[in-house]
Design goal:
Number of strands: 25
CATH class of the largest domain: Mainly Beta
Number of domains: 4
Shape: globular
Strand content: 35-45%
Largest sheet: 6 strands, antiparallel
Number of helices: 10
CATH architecture of the largest domain: Sandwich
Structural class: alpha+beta
């Protein structure tokens, strides 16, 4: 068991073959303290022993309860149960206690404590369950369930889970932190605030030797890409040639001091001599960098004479059009709009509006705008409420950002559930597959459906969403306890989520 100081946030996501997700765990104890714990995990493969999962858990020190131990020191203790199940069968199991440092007093607790574990797992589709509670509190365990896919075939080139790195040193004595000559302290969070100047990450590539052959070379490419854009950012691309090996190690970092605020993927690719994709993995990160903003002086150099924006001469109309752009805007663009909509003159807003659409389609920006405006008119007609235009609602934002869903399951009359809709997307433009959104409303009269859960990276994730739907018949039910409702009580929600109509 490992205990170290750490104070950051992580969320990782896996597409294609692996599942690496964030769990943010919090519950209120009877002693009026809220235990804050964060779990991330990544999967790897050992040529000697097969696949395994690494879990990284950190507990905010000041959120735990401390009691005097036998050394007359104050110490906190967290009880943890970990289960990996396929159906009703438990494949792997662990129960242990995570202890804090010993303290002389608890007046100014600043240290957090973390734990790293490894569990061997065979290939399969799992339900990953964690139960966590404060040993020195009367609260019941908090239970969280997550799907987990382990798939490491021996005849394909596979990129492991990507581990974000807090710090690393050369290995002097093997420990659970050790990987291929380095002791790696995980960066638990996926959030990079302004004071963080770099992002460091570790991964492994398997089966290049068996698939390509001894001495064969391949291209290793790492890059950062905005979550809603297909092309990498030109300043954030690393690539080099590698020689096939039983395990190829990826250990790299990017300087993100000038990376604007926004949601991004770090992507790792392996490609052959003909540039064919051999293997891929990616991890979600969120950057906050408010010092990097759109410069009004740069906009002044944009020539808008003889462009379509000259026809938008009413400043109130133009401001409304700019508000329409929020669902498809970057954080930088949202920041500009929030500041300048109330202060800038017509020409500055025209330049901004033209530059926005030129960056979307530099060949036909006017056509791109009017195509988008047609979609805005659709959502304004379909999803407007008594207090919101359609583009500003959760359903309208989702439609404009991701396009029309491939299927919608509507259920407005289940006796036990609030009215809800489940939207199903087969493939998103950023490559995510089989993704869903759940919207619900407490009364269908207002047409105000809010987002309750999505498995799309970067969207609101609430894997206990069924409990919120069924609070209609049991408003006092404790959503922090128990298992997912059974199918009889749960109505059609699970069936519609698994197989949307």
């Amino acid at each position: 068991m490992l205990k170290q100081d750490i104070s950051k946030f992580k969320n990782v996501t896996r597409v294609v073959l692996l599942s690496i997700l964030l769990l943010m765990i919090g519950f209120t104890s009877l002693q009026a303290k809220r235990l804050n714990a964060f779990l991330s995990y990544a999967t790897f493969y050992s040529p000697e022993s097969g696949p395994f999962i690494e879990t990284y858990l950190t507990v905010e020190g000041k959120s735990a309860n401390y009691v005097l131990n036998e050394n007359n020191k104050y110490q906190a203790a967290i009880q943890i149960i970990v289960l990996f199940k396929i159906g009703d069968e438990i494949i792997n199991y662990d129960k242990y206690e995570l202890s804090s440092y010993e303290l002389d007093d608890t007046l100014n607790v600043t240290n957090n404590f973390i734990d790293q574990q490894r569990y061997p797992l065979v290939n399969g589709n799992y339900e990953f369950e964690i139960q966590i509670w404060d040993k020195n509190s009367d609260t019941k365990p908090f239970i969280n369930l997550q799907p987990l896919v382990i798939d490491y075939p021996d005849n394909e080139i596979i990129v492991s889970g990507i581990q974000l790195v807090e710090s690393y040193t050369e290995t002097k004595e093997e420990s659970i932190l050790s990987k291929h000559g380095y002791d790696i302290l995980p960066y638990i969070f996926n959030y990079y605030p302004e004071n963080e100047q770099k992002v460091t990450f570790y991964a492994e590539i398997y089966n290049t030797l068996g698939v390509l052959g001894e001495g064969e070379k391949f291209l290793l490419k790492n890059y950062i890409v905005p979550i809603d854009i297909e092309n990498p950012l030109p300043k954030y691309i690393h690539q080099k040639k590698e020689i096939a090996a039983p395990v190829n190690v990826v250990f790299s970092e990017f300087d993100i001091s000038n990376l604007p605020s926004g949601n991004y993927f770090i992507v790792i690719e392996a490609r052959d001599k003909e540039n064919n994709l051999l293997g891929l993995n990616r991890i979600f990160i969120q950057r906050s960098n408010p010092s990097i903003q759109i410069n009004v002086m740069d906009l002044a150099n944009i020539d808008i004479e003889s462009t379509f924006v000259r026809n938008i001469s009413n400043i109130d109309t133009l401001k409304e059009y700019i508000r329409f752009l929020e669902p498809i805007s970057s954080e930088q663009e949202k920041g500009f709009a929030s500041v300048h909509l109330g202060t800038s003159d017509l020409e500055t807003l025209q330049r901004y509006f033209y530059n926005f659409w030129y960056s979307q389609d530099n060949l036909e920006p006017e056509k791109a705008w009017y195509a988008y405006l047609s979609e805005v008119n659709k959502v304004n007609f379909a999803y407007s409420t008594q207090i919101q235009r359609g583009y500003d609602t959760d359903r309208g934002r989702t439609y404009l950002k991701y396009g029309a869903p491939n299927a919608i399951s509507e259920s407005y009359n289940e006796p036990a559930a609030y009215p809800y809709e489940i939207w199903h997307y087969y493939v998103l433009k950023n490559g995510q597959r089989n993704k869903k959104f759940i919207f619900y409303t407490r009364d269908i009269v207002t047409n105000d459906f809010t987002l309750l859960h999505s498995d799309v990276v970067g969207e609101l994730s609430n894997y206990r969403w069924q409990y919120f739907l069924y609070q209609r018949v049991d408003p006092g039910f404790n959503i922090d306890q128990g298992a997912i409702p059974d199918p009889i009580w749960g109505g059609n929600t699970k069936r519609y989520f698994d197989i949307p109509r």
